[in-house]
Amino acid sequence: MAAKKTTSKKAKKVEKVIARATIQDFDTIISPVITEKTMTLMQEQNKATFKVQPNANKTQVKIAFERIFNVKATDIKIINVLPQKTSRGGRYKGTIPGFKKAIITVAEGEALDLFKE
């Protein structure tokens, strides 16, 4: 009887524990970038695009993404989008601020649903 109890305790320890998302994870990934190009990337190549913190690196983005959406990320690409100069009405000059974005490839066989109803 003692052997049965020890095997059940070991079985409980082996169970996979899913890590929960923390506040830092939600601070790392700011928002999804929704454009026609990112939507075609999502549908055809299973890639998602997100705006991330300016000081975030690939490892932080991957861990945060996997914790928030509970999917496996296979590849991360980070791009710094530069600020752009603009004119408003021809007379007033201004700038559109730059940001950092990450293009994340989701593992094959898994899906990401950003637009839940």
CATH architecture: 2-Layer Sandwich
Outline: globular
- Uncertain residue segments: 10-16
Portion in strands: 25-35%
Distance between the termini: 51 Å
Number of strands: 6
CATH topology: Alpha-Beta Plaits
The number of helices is: 4
Layout of strands and helices, then pairs:
Layout: H1 2-14, H2 23-28, E1 29-32, H3 36-45, E2 47-52, H4 58-69, E3 73-81, E4 84-88, E5 92-96, E6 99-106
Antiparallel strand pairs: 1-2, 2-6, 3-6, 4-5
Keywords for this structure?
Alpha-Beta Plaits; alpha+beta; 117 residues; two-stranded antiparallel ribbon; four-stranded antiparallel sheet
What does it look like?
There is one protein chain. The chain has 117 residues and is an alpha+beta fold. The protein has a single domain (20-106), classed as Alpha-Beta Plaits (2-Layer Sandwich), CATH 3.30.70.330. Helices cover 35% and strands 32% of the residues. It has four helices and six strands, in the order H-H-E-H-E-H-E-E-E-E. It has helices at residues 2-14, 23-28, 36-45, 58-69; strands spanning 29-32, 47-52, 73-81, 84-88, 92-96, 99-106. The strands form two sheets. The protein has a four-stranded antiparallel beta sheet. A hairpin with a 3-residue loop joins strand 4 (84-88) and strand 5 (92-96). Mean pLDDT is 86; it is low at 10-16.
